[in-house]
Amino acid sequence: MINRVILVGRLAQDPELRYTPNGVAVTTFTLAVNRRFTNQQGEREADFINIVTWRQLAETCANYLKKGRLVGVDGRLQIRSYENSEGRRIKVAEVVADTVQFLEPAGARSGTAAEGDPFGKGRNEMDDPFADDGKPIDISDDDLPF
Question: I want to staple 101 with a disulfide (CB 3.0 to 4.6 A). Which of 23, 72, 108, 123 is the partner?
């Protein structure tokens, strides 16, 4: 049997880090994933999917992710249920992440980066060590991995 979910989207809010009574870190966040089609008004809709991470991955997500960050999530779908305070049975669908990939630089959504400019508006070409200055790059054969 296969239970695999792969998503790419933006965080709808900052992650929430908690610890279990045994001291295990757990972080939850909601991922906004755009649908491939538009609605009748021509607007693109999104699905808001709950994500759960555990242990070291949970602490990493809590420390480095913020609302609006673009991430890739690979994990499994989990359906759980609980009884609320009114005695009603509630079902919850969430993705338990095995990996979370940060897909853009940390400051890219802060308003400093221009569309199509992942390094931020106004950066000097001298800041980019890979900028094409017209000179050949001197690399010895010992430095190549192949």
Answer: 72
22-37 per-position pLDDT tens digit: 999 999 999 999 988 8
SS3 assignment, position 32? strand
Q: Where are the domains of the chain?
A: 5-106
- Cα separation, 44 vs 128, in Å, equals 35
pLDDT digits (tens, 9 = 90+) for 36-59: 888 888 888 899 999 999 999 999
| Angstrom distance (rounded) from CA 29 to CA 61 | 9
Sign of the Cα pseudo-torsion (118, 63, 30, 27, in order): positive
Helix or strand holding residue 143 (H, E): none
> Domain 5-106: which topology?
OB fold (Dihydrolipoamide Acetyltransferase, E2P) (2.40.50)
